[in-house]
Structure formats: C-alpha cells, structure tokens
C-alpha cells in the first residue's frame, strides 16, 4: 500500500518503490514533516528534535510550558501567522486586511488513483500503477479558511506529487498573497541548490550554489516560466555527484510565473519550496471560492543526480505527456525558419519539401510568416488567415502539394500575441493586456492577448479551427515570444488574479485544441526554450529547446535540460554554418550527432542550397536517426561529461533492460597533437559483454565502465562519435 495512516500516532507514511515520505499531526494539530528519503519503516518522528522552543521563537498560545515552536519545527505547509518566521508557503489576508492564519489538521482521506486538478495539468496514473491520493485538510476556523493538501503517490516511478487547494469556507473575503505548492523541510544536512538559469538562446545552464543561512531563490515574474530560470530545482548534498549523494528535486507542472526557494535557518535546517510567483500575485477569494496551487513533482535519490533525472524522465514521458504521440516516434522535420525566415512562397516551400523528401525527412514545418500581413515581425499577429497570395492558395492547398512530395505539413502559430498593426488589434484593442493610461511595453513589437478572457480565447480558437478544420495540418509549433509586463485585464474583478488566470486560459485553449484535434502533434516554443516546463509537456510532448542551434552551445543547453526533462521532449535541429547565433562553424557530422540527442529531431536550413556531399550526409543522418530513435526516446540517459569542463562532451542512452546502448561524443577542445580520449559508459549490464554495432570483438561491460571506450587516437575539434553497443547473448 503506497499510503498508510497510523491512527494512534496520527502518522502518514507514503511509500514508493525505493522512497518513504512521512509526516505526522502533532499534539497541537500542526502537520509536521518527518522524513523524505530511502525507503524506511516505523515512526521516524525521532528525527525531529527541533520542536523545542529555542531562543525567543514564538509558541502557540496554549503551549504554556514553552516546549514547542513552529519557528523551528519542520512543516508540510508553513503559513504566516503561527510564529514561523521563515519563508511561508501561504500568506493570506483576512477580510479585515490583517495577515495571519493558524492552520491545524481538520481531516484526511485516502483515495485510490491519482488526483487531477481543475483547469491545470497534472501527472496522471494508469490502471496498474497502484497510485493513491492522500488529501489532508488543514483549517483555520476564525478565518474561514481551508487548505487541502494533495499528495499523489506513483510508486513505480518513485515520484510523489503535491498540490494544494485553498478554499474560502467563511463569510468574508480572503486574499492569498503567496502560495507555494510544496514545501520540503529537512532537519539536517548541508546542501547545494542546483537551478537551471540562462537567457534567450542560452537556456538552462546548471547553477550550483551552497545553501547558506538566508534565502536563495529564483523565479519568473514574466507570466511564463521563462528563458532565464526554469521551474525545476535540485537540492543535494554538497558532495553529490552524478552517481553518489542524496538529492531531492521539485518540478513545477505549471507554465507561468514561479518561485523556487531554498533557505537555511538558524538551526541549520533547510527548507525548499516551489510554487507561484508572489510578486505580481494577490488572489482574492470570495466566500465559496477556491484557488489551486499547481502541482509539483518530487523525487528523491540516494545515488546522485542521475537517478533524479531517470525518475523524472520516466514520469514526465509516461505520466505527464499524453495522447497518441506520447510513445510514438516523432516526425523528422525540416523547419522553414532558419531556412528562409519570412522570405518564402508556397512554391519555395514545395521546393524545400521536394528536397527534404529525397533526404528521407517526414514533415515540412512552415514557420512564422504565412498569415495576415506578416511580412516581418512588426505586424500581423492575431490575424490567423493564410496569406493566399504568398502561399499560392490556402494552407490546405499547400498541405496537398507538400503531401504530394511525400511529406506532412506543420505550421507555426503564436496565438497568445497580437501586433498593433493587425486587424484583430484594430477591432479589439481592449483584448491586449495593457494598463489604462500607460503606453504598453512592447516586446518584439507585439502585445499579449488577455487569455484570462473567455471571449478572447473563443476568438482565437475559432481562428485556429478555421485553418485546422480544412485538414492537412499534422503538427503545430505553438510559440510565445514575449513576457507579460502590463498586467491589467479589462474584465478582471481583481488585477492580482490576472497572471494566474492567464495561464489557466492558456491551458483551456490548448486543451480545446487538443480535444478537437487529438492526433495533432503540438511542439511548444517560447522564444526558443522560454516555456520548457512540465506544464507545457502535458499538452505538447516536445518543446523547441532553444533558438540557439549552434552545436557547441547546444551541448551545454541540452546537458542542462537533461537534468529535469526527458530527451523525448527535446526539439533539436541541424542548422547551417556559420551558425546564425554564434557565427561558429561545426562540421555537419557533429551537428547531426548533437541534434540526434533530441527525441524531436530535424533540420532548420535551406536544403535546396546544399551540395551533393552534404545531402548524402544528411540522408545518412536521417537513416541513422531512425535506427537509434527508440533508444533516444525511451532509453535511460547518462551524462558522461560536463560540457563546460571537459574536452570531450559525451552522453549515452541505454535500453532499460541493458540490451543496447548508444555512446555519443563530440570533441570540443584539443591541445597539441591531442591524446586519446576515453569515454566511460554507465548502466551496462555488469558481467556482460557488448559488441560495437554487433560486430568486432566482444568488449567486457565492466572494463568499458571502468576504463572506458577509446575514441580515435588524435581527435580534431568537433570530431564526433556515435557507438552503438549491443549486448552479446
Ligand atoms: C521564435 C522561435 O523560437 C523560432 O524558432 C521561430 O519560430 C520564431 N520565433 C518565429 O518568429
């Protein structure tokens, strides 16, 4: 049983295959966190010694003997108002404007299966998963406030999910000023926090910092999860490596603003929290209303960071992503963006499709520029009718022509945005988010539509349906190229709700598109990888990882992305050289090896301009990708090097049963004549032998893992390698 309740001890134990999570209702009715770690049994309450009053910390009024303080006690859902002066999960204001609540245990319920959340994405369970849900309700009678803490246990995935529902069950208005979805209080340990930071075209570089006294936080106030910080973090032992040490992670299943915090307190305890950005958030709840804190996926590893990634890859790929594309090979794409930007016609695209067909590519994606007056990025957004003059017909007509070449057709859209120079904006200027009396801030010359409004969403849905209903479009790249600055909706009852309601609106629109076109493959995108999060992955099983297609930089970006997200989600294309972003030239072979590390592989260059040799190489790459694709999509991923530190960047995919592996490497730095580099694979079956590509000598798995696989003797910069190892026998 994944969930058990020891009634006399008021002890909740959540068990997964190799972890245990435990909490208890204490004598005051507070819900204390006891343990999240390696599977263990019994009452682990002995671990908590810091409940006694220390220093001048406050205690509950009834605790006359001063033996307890929330300021030092580990908690499941810390709130402002009980004497805990650390960062709270909940900050709520009563009808009289005062802060301060006092949440105590009210009731609990264990339910079979995994909870879902109204209007928000969440991991799901399938029959046979043995998933269970624990709901624990905390209440503050004076305020008329209830908080239902939801715990989902996915035993085989070693994942525990958390979410919370805040309810106004009283008679007055409450205002939620801060809401975190999950809190993890660890009573001992000295930790690093790893966050995934960057910028446009350089996303998700791991940043590892010691959690010292005080608070460490990253987040987004941009209305989207952002290129700058990712809603995913790992707390780990200071000496944790890929394969050793304890690590805990939190992944936010949400695509809007977030706040990720880690705090070491006065007694060297550590609190980690993940939830909604509190900066541009102040959510009123009238009597009877409720607010849902989005889901956080949590996992624990006692064997380093690699296990964290393996657990997350598995659960996101199998229980967050959904629909027919979840387990299917994705089409190999050629995307028109870096091939021709806005400068294309229907004929030019058909020419591109023809060449792509020769090379074995599956689908042509017509990127930005096919609709309205969109001849550059200053106009046209919001008018989702095809430019028939430019295309030589409708999108369906183009699809027919592309299909005749043997390819499918995909299109780019950016439904959340509007250009001031568009028919939509001229007809409905009030549909754009903007603060009355203030010139709105432009981003890429565009404004953000108010997706918190149902009428705006209905219009967008209608426009998208008008294109998609004609048929022929098999894929949509859903882009979003600016942050939200002017947070004001004409219809909102309170402006503090707008950013959260915007995200619910986005999910509503995406959900409607998915239900109407269940076979449509959606690729997420946001100025490259600005919305690479588990929330988007519930609607789009693949995401354009970064606008930076330079293979050298992609090694870093894909390395960072791999900590929290499965390779099946990684959109990676081979582009032209010198690279548009960095000006760097990397051989086509290496560009291919790097892009093939993504489960959504493709090309982003003008294939019609390539010479015969490059065409042959690409043909070979596409054919090779088809062979390795199942391993890339479903295999266990191993980071074998640190791209910024090592001269050879290497990674590996291993089938879950160890029967085959793919070792990939790119030389990034060479000194002198160079020395032979050895790459040490992991995850092979101990005691077994492997053959490279099924031929050649038998190689001992243990020797390979101990001493490594030699790459060619003197490597040149950007020489690349792909070794397929097959287990013998
Ligand atoms: C940003 C995306 O990341 C690019 O791939 C491309 O689709 C452009 N937008 C189009 O405007």
What's this entry about, in short?
By secondary structure, this protein is α+β, with helices and mostly antiparallel strands. Helices cover 19% and strands 31% of the residues. It starts with a strand and ends with a strand.
Provide a descriptive summary of the structure in words.
- It contains 13 helices and 37 strands.
- With 729 residues, it is α+β, with helices and mostly antiparallel strands.
- It has 3 domains: 3-319, Distorted Sandwich (Beta-galactosidase, Chain A, domain 5), CATH 2.70.98; 333-634, Aldolase class I (TIM Barrel, Alpha-Beta Barrel); 648-727, Sandwich (Immunoglobulin-like).
- The chain has a 9-stranded antiparallel beta sheet with strand order 6-7-8-9-19-15-14-11-12. Strands 20-21-22-25-26-27-28-29 form an 8-stranded parallel β-barrel, surrounded by 4 helices.
- Helix 7 (454-468) runs parallel beside helix 8 (498-516), helix 10 runs parallel beside helix 11 and helix 11 (588-595) packs parallel to helix 12.
- The mean pLDDT is 97.
- The structure holds (2R,3S,4R,5S)-2-(hydroxymethyl)piperidine-3,4,5-triol.
- (2R,3S,4R,5S)-2-(hydroxymethyl)piperidine-3,4,5-triol binds next to loops.
List the main descriptive attributes of the protein structure presented here:
TIM Barrel, about 30% strand, Immunoglobulin-like, 13 helices, alpha+beta, eight-stranded parallel β-barrel, globular, binds (2R,3S,4R,5S)-2-(hydroxymethyl)piperidine-3,4,5-triol, about 725 residues
